[in-house]
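Read as amino acids, tokens; as here:

___
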Amino acid sequence: TITPKKPNSALRKVARVRLTSGFEITAYIPGIGHNSQEHSVVLVRGG
């Protein structure tokens, strides 16, 4: 979890993801609850 910059406040659920192109990004996990663990395969939507 990370916290957003001022003036917002919350605990955002995020995951550090390494793409096949070599980039390492921080992806937001929407919704209530998740069962993602280390080495999970994820689908990332461009924003």
Notes: Residues 4 and 17 are 19 Å apart (CA to CA). The first strand starts at residue 14 and ends at 18.
